[in-house]
Amino acid sequence: MSNGWTEERRRKQAEAIKQWQPWAKSTGPKTKTGKERASLNALKTGDHSLVMARWRDVLKINAEFLVQIEQAVAFEDKRYALECKLVENELLDKRLKEMTLGCQNPLIQERTNGLSDSHNHGRANHDP
Fold first, then answer.
1. Band of pLDDT at residue 128, cut at 50, 70 and 90
2. Domain range for residue 32?
3. In this predicted model, what pLDDT tens digit does every residue of 60-78 receive, in sequence order?
4. Under a CB-based contact definition with an 8 Å cutoff, are residues 50 and 40 in contact?
5. Residue 42 domain-assigned?
6. Is 90 inside any structural domain?
7. Is residue 100 assigned to a domain?
8. What per-residue confidence (pLDDT) applies to 17?
9. d(CA 48, CA 39)
10. Alpha carbon distance 82, 109 (integer Å)
């Protein structure tokens, strides 16, 4: 074997331990206070410790917070894109009006006058 124990040695050790029965002689806490204290052993170390439980809670809250931030950023990105598109449309309308301002063709004047009204969707016109 890799740890130096042969099968024969393992067998003899197992027989000896069965004869000794160390589990029968083990002593644990006898008093009520000792038993209560020993019952908390699992909570002092490892994954069951109070510190680890608090860290798990903090990490869970942090993960939930990050999801909320990601959702808020995604929403703001969409809102910003829509605002940019609206500003772009308003600028295009303004440029088109400026370009056709001196035009004498009544058909073109009629079409450009209605542009800002159709894109504002009921909002007040902010052109100077």
1. very low
2. 7-120
3. 999 999 999 999 999 999 9
4. no
5. yes
6. yes
7. yes
8. 94
9. 12
10. 28
CA dihedral of residues 64, 70, 75, 76 (deg, nearest 10): 120
The domain tally of the chain equals 1
82 domain residue, yes or no:
yes
Place of tokens 């008093």: 31
Q: Please calculate the CA angle 90-126-124 and round it to the nearest 5 degrees.
A: 100
The tokens of 10 are what?
């393992």
Which residue type is seen at 72? A
Query: Mean pLDDT score of the chain, rounded to an integer?
Result: 81
Global pTM? 0.38
pLDDT, tens digit, 9 for 90 and up, residues 76-96: 999 999 999 999 999 988 888
87 Cα distance to chain centroid: 33
Angle at which helix 106-113 crosses helix 50-100, to 10 degrees, equals 160
